[in-house]
């Protein structure tokens, strides 16, 4: 059946895709893996070794930062879900007509604003000479300015704020497809708010919850800007250490090893998330 | 918990209050940034010292406004060039991808589709780093074998474009494929029956149909490129795009000129976002 004209077309269409995936995704990541397995023994002399991975496991700073980044990202994902769910439910099920559209558009606004600007907004709010500190001083709750920047809470606020949209949108979409009569049936059968939420609404929203959580987790784990700007020198974020190895210390082999570990961690958690919730990667991502 | 189910007045009030509080939280940082771009003070913080346009129009240090700050203006231009190049590359490749995945059948299609989605789950920093490594090792090999240096493979704007292109293409492909999937292929067949060549049919029937998605994808990729930070940070050379230049300023502790830039950025991306919503609207009908 394959006419020559047809297969030429297929070839022409596939070439850009293959060039893109092989040259910009596949080879660079394999190259990173190779570099991470190299050890410099003398000038321009390299040999295969696991030393950079060993370094990771014996240096408490790396391990601690790694675990800390993962836990904080998980926490940020959980908080984002908790904050976003009622809002998404309100937009999808309670608001009607024009106000529904308006609220949804309002949610999109921060997304269109650069991450840098969003983070900067929080810096102005939280810093010692910032709005919140000065406001509290003015009301008289505190007697001296408070430094609310450069701590874990500030990082958390920034992470949750920055990824809110990626939770709200999939939740609104899945909740919007929930038939009202199912919810009514739940109440008719004697359920209270909590029962209906647990037995009807959450199971229906599971695909949205999964895709939202995966995206938010990925964004937090790979974030560089928010921890550095809001957490300051003590942010201890893993991407920051990768940056330091590459750009500041020019230790590419160690940096590559850290990069591979971060990639492994994120793939592992995404995979576990998909497995636990029974979703497919393809469905969640498109 | 739907309008047809009675719930207590207190519950409804609390719920409303929560939603309102959420939207205040959502808009507060942005409002503050805009507000303080008009504060007549050298620092973007309280007290409020009166209204000024100096951070836009000021001509001299320390009150150099954005319209006279040549360093920032240059970085804006760098960002525009990078975003334009990224957009052209991404949209063209995505268009091919959309036709490939929606129209063709071939062995390994599913696997390739999954591969196409992978850039979405690679953290931006890692994507940047891996391309940095590959570019440099390629450049080193070429230099060792043939003795000449390819500037484009060293950190710099070409590498930034490639890095952004690597993940923005996925997003564009999803946007364009979604619309191509809804296309009624009998229209194209009719054109073929009427004697059009395959290329003419696609050019006169399919591409005009895809136009809203193409424009939408172009706007999205322009914005994403313009605002990208993580991947850019790893690949940038001596010419800094706007986000990198702003980041450097923020670390130094900058004047409200950063607020002015941010405000203009919000206006600009807001306008583009509106445009993309507007362009894609008829598609839903």
From TrEMBL, chain B:
<feature type="domain" description="ABC transmembrane type-1">
    <location>
        <begin position="76"/>
        <end position="276"/>
    </location>
</feature>
<keyword id="KW-1133">Transmembrane helix</keyword>
<feature type="transmembrane region" description="Helical">
    <location>
        <begin position="257"/>
        <end position="279"/>
    </location>
</feature>
<keyword id="KW-1003">Cell membrane</keyword>
<dbReference type="GO" id="GO:0005886">
    <property type="term" value="C:plasma membrane"/>
</dbReference>
<dbReference type="InterPro" id="IPR035906">
    <property type="entry name" value="MetI-like_sf"/>
</dbReference>
<dbReference type="GO" id="GO:0055085">
    <property type="term" value="P:transmembrane transport"/>
</dbReference>
<protein>
    <submittedName>
        <fullName>ABC transporter permease</fullName>
    </submittedName>
</protein>
<keyword id="KW-0812">Transmembrane</keyword>
<feature type="transmembrane region" description="Helical">
    <location>
        <begin position="112"/>
        <end position="136"/>
    </location>
</feature>
<feature type="transmembrane region" description="Helical">
    <location>
        <begin position="156"/>
        <end position="176"/>
    </location>
</feature>
<keyword id="KW-0472">Membrane</keyword>
<dbReference type="Pfam" id="PF00528">
    <property type="entry name" value="BPD_transp_1"/>
</dbReference>
<keyword id="KW-0813">Transport</keyword>
<feature type="transmembrane region" description="Helical">
    <location>
        <begin position="17"/>
        <end position="38"/>
    </location>
</feature>
<comment type="similarity">
    <text>Belongs to the binding-protein-dependent transport system permease family. CysTW subfamily.</text>
</comment>
<dbReference type="InterPro" id="IPR000515">
    <property type="entry name" value="MetI-like"/>
</dbReference>
<feature type="transmembrane region" description="Helical">
    <location>
        <begin position="76"/>
        <end position="100"/>
    </location>
</feature>
<dbReference type="InterPro" id="IPR051789">
    <property type="entry name" value="Bact_Polyamine_Transport"/>
</dbReference>
<feature type="transmembrane region" description="Helical">
    <location>
        <begin position="213"/>
        <end position="237"/>
    </location>
</feature>
